[in-house]
């Protein structure tokens, strides 16, 4: 090889270097050629995480070689149809945008298992009531031997018989302690406090109801051994510790010039709905040493047809006969929100309040100073029940007798799964969100979803 040939080869390599070096530098810096745009684009990244792991990911129909959790670097900026699939689970999909120099996250994706349902109770259910935080359920059945009341632990799905009789329970209701360790079962003939941990222990309040004409029972929010009840203008405190019942103690007495319609006790203060002369007012009294002092705050109401619902973080909820709600701060100096036709509310982690009407699911973030309602889903009609997922990334909705699971991430709309079940009249999800319990044609079933 002569020197001229060598020089030509050297020049060729030098030229290749000067051409390829910038390309390699740009490639290393995350630039890619975009055929659609006909030029170089700075790429972005996409992170996808699922529970459970090991799901297959496709972008615009093209499968990726790795399984979740996935971090895809050097993705050209664009909108992508992302699908996540795993055998035995409902698939997940959503359109997400990847932006230049940014990372797009699709985290906290829950893949829900496909399983066959199992019948939990062979007899038809007369009445079913789920506890707060969905730890327990109380249900009654009828058979040739009579009527029976049961407690179902939704965690281990064990059932205990609580009460039986020859006649059906008339006008039954269950009033749960805040932590669901106890509940008061009321019917025309019964007023019994049951424990959800010590099944054989109970306390019969029925003699006290007859003696004092008690009504409007409410558990102390911070103490599962204390019940409050009203008789006319008087409010009583009842020690509901199992097997240690004591005579009700009078803690609040309204004078005869007023009329007490309802009450609520929270943090040593009693809130009342009362009539003073011709005015119906929501009031607050401090309770000190077992006695009520003068009114500290009040708000006038349109009529007496209001009842207390509960306290949600720092808001007092009051409703009328049509389930129209006022949310008032605890100082009674500001009505924060008014909303019509609320059918159910559920608080998550003392921050997120799920609100359900018969046509809409929405929520409030009570941890924010500026409380504004955010819509999750709207329906023409038939929204019957709802519940948070344990992560608050999903909500369950019962609409027109079918259950859907709705993702809270609203980028390009809420992704939703419809469970292939029908004729469902009620449902609950256990505290760990592993199982859906539902009532179908008056039979109780369970469906594993995790």
What distinguishing features does this structure have?
450 residues, mainly beta, Immunoglobulin-like, 5-stranded antiparallel beta sheet, 4-stranded antiparallel beta sheet, 2 helices, globular
Describe the 3D structure.
With 450 residues, this protein is mostly beta strands. The protein contains 2 helices and 42 strands. Strands 23, 24, 25, 26 and 27 form a 5-stranded antiparallel β-sheet that branches. Strands 5-4-7-8 form a 4-stranded antiparallel β-sheet, with no helix packed on it. Strands 10-42-41-40 form a 4-stranded antiparallel β-sheet, with no helix packed on it. The longest helix has 26 residues, at 3-28. The protein starts with a helix and ends with a strand.
Q: What is the topology?
A:
Blueprint (H helix, E strand, L loop, with lengths): L2 H26 L2 E4 L4 E4 L1 E8 L4 E4 L2 E6 L2 E6 L2 E8 L6 E7 L4 E8 L7 E2 L5 E6 L5 E8 L2 E8 L5 E7 L7 E4 L5 E5 L4 E5 L6 E3 L1 H7 L2 E6 L2 E9 L2 E6 L9 E5 L4 E9 L2 E8 L2 E10 L2 E2 L4 E5 L4 E7 L2 E6 L4 E5 L5 E5 L4 E5 L3 E5 L3 E6 L8 E5 L4 E6 L5 E6 L2 E6 L8 E3 L5 E6 L5 E6 L2 E6 L2
Parallel strand pairs: 3-9
Antiparallel strand pairs: 1-2, 3-6, 4-5, 4-7, 7-8, 10-42, 11-12, 12-13, 13-14, 15-16, 16-17, 17-18, 19-20, 20-21, 21-22, 23-24, 24-25, 25-26, 25-27, 28-29, 29-30, 30-31, 32-33, 33-34, 34-35, 36-37, 37-38, 38-39, 40-41, 41-42
């Amino acid at each position: 090889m002569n020197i001229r040939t060598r020089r030509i080869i050297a020049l060729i390599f030098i030229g290749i270097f000067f051409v390829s070096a910038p390309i390699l530098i740009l490639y290393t810096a995350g630039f890619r050629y975009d055929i659609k745009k006909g030029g170089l684009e700075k790429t972005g990244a996409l992170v996808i995480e699922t529970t459970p792991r090991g799901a297959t990911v496709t972008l615009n129909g093209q499968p990726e070689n790795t399984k979740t959790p996935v971090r895809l670097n050097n993705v050209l900026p664009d909108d992508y149809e992302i699908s996540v699939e795993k055998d035995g689970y409902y698939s997940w999909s959503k359109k997400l945008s990847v932006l230049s120099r940014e990372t797009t996250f699709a985290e906290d994706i829950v893949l829900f298992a496909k399983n066959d349902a199992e019948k939990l109770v062979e007899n038809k259910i007369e009445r079913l009531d789920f506890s707060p935080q969905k730890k327990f359920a109380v249900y009654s059945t009828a058979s040739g031997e009579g009527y029976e009341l049961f407690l179902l632990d939704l965690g281990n799905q064990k059932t205990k018989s609580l009460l039986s009789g020859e006649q059906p329970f008339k006008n039954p209701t269950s009033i749960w302690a805040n932590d669901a360790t106890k509940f008061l079962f009321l019917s025309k003939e019964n007023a019994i406090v049951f424990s959800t941990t010590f099944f054989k222990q109970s306390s019969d309040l029925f003699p006290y109801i007859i003696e004092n004409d008690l009504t409007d029972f409410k558990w102390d929010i911070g103490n599962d051994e204390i019940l409050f009840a009203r008789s006319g203008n008087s409010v009583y405190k009842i020690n509901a510790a199992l097997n240690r019942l004591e005579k009700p103690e009078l803690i609040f007495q309204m004078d005869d010039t007023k009329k007490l319609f309802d009450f609520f006790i929270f943090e040593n203060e009693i809130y009342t709905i009362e009539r003073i002369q011709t005015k119906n007012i929501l009031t607050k009294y401090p309770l000190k040493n077992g006695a009520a002092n003068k009114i500290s705050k009040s708000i006038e109401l349109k009529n007496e047809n209001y009842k207390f619902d509960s306290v949600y973080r720092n808001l007092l909820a009051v409703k009328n006969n049509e389930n129209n709600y006022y949310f008032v701060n605890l100082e009674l100096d500001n009505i924060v929100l008014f909303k019509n036709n609320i059918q159910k509310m559920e608080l998550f982690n003392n921050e997120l309040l799920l609100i359900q009407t018969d046509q809409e699911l929405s929520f409030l973030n009570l941890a924010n100073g500026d409380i504004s309602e955010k819509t999750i889903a709207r329906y023409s009609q038939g929204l019957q029940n709802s519940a948070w997922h344990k992560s608050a990334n999903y909500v369950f909705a019962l609409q027109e007798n079918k259950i859907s699971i709705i993702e809270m991430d609203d980028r390009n709309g809420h992704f939703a799964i419809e469970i292939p079940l029908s004729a469902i009249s009620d449902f609950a999800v256990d505290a760990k969100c592993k199982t859906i319990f539902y009532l179908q044609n008056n039979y109780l079933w369970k469906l594993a979803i995790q």
